[in-house]
Design a protein that fits this description.
Number of domains: 1
Distance between the termini: 10 Å
Order of helices and strands: EEEEHEEE
Number of helices: 1
Largest sheet: 5 strands, antiparallel
Mean pLDDT: 85
Strand content: 35-45%
Shape: globular
Helix content: 10-25%
């Protein structure tokens, strides 16, 4: 199986432009992809979460990279995308640190921070 290196560059959290509604929050990650050490390009993927679910433990559905059609490890990518998201938002988040409280919803936040994952 191929080796993938993802470098996430930014996240736009809960954007109305990406199709969120009263039931789901849609966020988008922006990243570069290398496959077996060769650059494959820059891509985006959407992350979908139920409104009101726990950021730390709630399910986050990770979409496929938009526009990429080569070999891919979606499970590895999904785990990396969730880690990146939770590193920015939540009780351990460096962008929005949320601890406790209920019914908190902030929209259209942009976080710019590189993070690299290999799988």
């Amino acid at each position: 199986m191929a080796t993938f290196r993802i470098t996430f560059h930014q996240l736009i959290q809960d954007s109305q432009d990406y199709g969120n509604d009263d039931e789901h929050m849609i966020s988008r990650v922006f990243f570069s992809l290398e496959v077996d050490g060769k650059g494959a390009g820059d891509f985006t993927a959407d992350l979908k979460q139920v409104v009101g679910s726990n950021i730390e433990t709630g399910e986050i559905e990770v979409g496929a990279p938009s526009g990429y059609d080569g070999p891919f490890n979606h499970q590895g990518f999904s785990e990396a995308a969730r880690k990146y998201f939770r590193s920015l938002i939540g009780s351990q988040g460096s962008g929005i640190h949320i601890a406790g409280g209920t019914n908190i919803r902030m929209r259209n936040n942009r976080f710019v921070r590189d993070a690299q994952f290999t799988f």
